[in-house]
Amino acid sequence: MKRTPFVGDREYFPQIGRIQYEGPESDNPLAFKAYNPMELVGGKTMEEHLRFAVCYWHTFWGSGADPFGPGTRAFPWQVDGDAMTQARARIDAAFEFFTKLDVPFYCFHDRDLAPEGASVAESEKNLQTMVALAKERQQASGMRLLWGTANLFSHPRYMNGAATNPDLAVVALAGAQVKAALDATVELGGVNYVFWGGREGYSCLFNTDTRKELDHFARFLELARDYGRSIGFEGTFLIEPKPMEPMKHQYDFDAQTVIGFLRHHGLDGDFKLNIEANHATLAGHSFAHELQMCVDAGLLGSIDANRGNPQNGWDTDQFPLDMNDCVAAMAIVLASGGFQNGGLNFDAKLRRESTDLEDLFLAHIGGMDAFARGLVIAERMVKDPVLGRLRGDRYKSFESDLGQRFESGQLGLADLRNFAAGYGEPERQSGKQEQLENRMNDLMFA
């Protein structure tokens, strides 16, 4: 869809025009070297494959603050006035940025878009006001909402969780917030709705009824699903796994934990997973592993594209520039048939030391180019007969009549015993890992 650059009453990035593709020979830091939105890769454009989104929170709220010091950036949209005046300035800056960067989607938490009020009714009114402005800007620019969500982790009331909180009054407030966020997502045509259980977990096992809390979590998700469907939400509900931080243990620890939870409670027909790269590594997995587990279960929904720092033990949310990660991720997504409703949301923030407004553009350009390169390389890998043969050869024995009968459930344990007794000791079969990794490098640098 053709998008139109948006500038409100004030231009917040006057020195920066629309970011264009200039190709690999360009030395312009404010241009794409690899991401050419209309370039065809495997029959689809790069834009259709990658479905990039900008997150509202880190990009327009991220001041550079960390646990050891206050922010280092001052934004021009931090204008004088009350919280709603500032929210109006921020949304104009956001849509100017989205359209100058030329991404098709954005994502938000309810409290990113509109401030919390002194009551449930006032909070709902604030959000409705800002949703009306966002809808006007979407219509003027052609931007779309990849997903909406509710911030159920920042307010002190959620110190013991939201849906899993031991106090029903807190659970009710969380429900009110999700209802309003779902209303907003539907009004803005959002194609997904995300739950990140930032405090759905525990700090002390011995003062926690884990069975009750997990049952409550499932019940809360059922209520949200039912309400969403009742107001016409036809998109995908997403759960975003994370193992810890802020809680010591979070119930949505990793992909397989969430998959098991959804299946146990019969929610896997409506819910899929939103995988964040940095959360995967915090869980002790690779980004690729978490994506593959979701694909295997048929439950990959969307991706939060970022990375962690192996020298830091927390969620650093850096922009995704590791080519091995980008290639592996896109190879898995392509092999699974590509995104349906999902996309690549840059849940990433500038480093504390990056203080210029243009750094917001530079960071996103780098991430978009990295995934564009990853897409092109991944298509080579998915189509490569050598990689396919190296993997397929390891499972050739299951192509036999006996192997197919085993996979279809026609053999018993005694049948396996009799086969083993007659076959003897099998020859060792090399995994050819080194050859495979060499071939992957050959394809990456072809």
UniProtKB/TrEMBL annotation:
UniProt GO MF annotations: magnesium ion binding; xylose isomerase activity
Comp. bias (Basic and acidic residues): 425-440
SUPFAM superfamilies: Xylose isomerase-like
Any single GO CC term annotated in Swiss-Prot or TrEMBL for this entry: cytoplasm
Cofactor: Mg(2+)
Record key words, sorted: Carbohydrate metabolism, Cytoplasm, Isomerase, Magnesium, Metal-binding, Xylose metabolism
Residues reported to bind Mg(2+) 2: E276, H279, D315, D317
InterPro entries recorded: Xyl_isomerase-like_sf, Xylose_isom_bac, Xylose_isomerase
Cofactor binding comment, as recorded: Binds 2 magnesium ions per subunit.
Binding site for Mg(2+) 1: E240, E276, D304, D347
Chief localisation class: cytoplasm
Subcellular location: Cytoplasm
Assigned EC number: 5.3.1.5
Metal-binding found in the keyword field: yes
Biological process, per Gene Ontology: D-xylose metabolic process
Keyword Metal-binding: yes
Spans annotated as Disordered: 424-446
Domain of life, source organism: Bacteria
Reactions accelerated catalytically: alpha-D-xylose = alpha-D-xylulofuranose
Subunit-level organization: Homotetramer.
PANTHER family, per the entry: PTHR48408, XYLOSE ISOMERASE (PTHR48408:SF1)
Recorded family membership: Belongs to the xylose isomerase family.
Name this protein carries in UniProt: Xylose isomerase
Organism in which the protein naturally occurs: Sulfidibacter corallicola
Gene coding for it: xylA
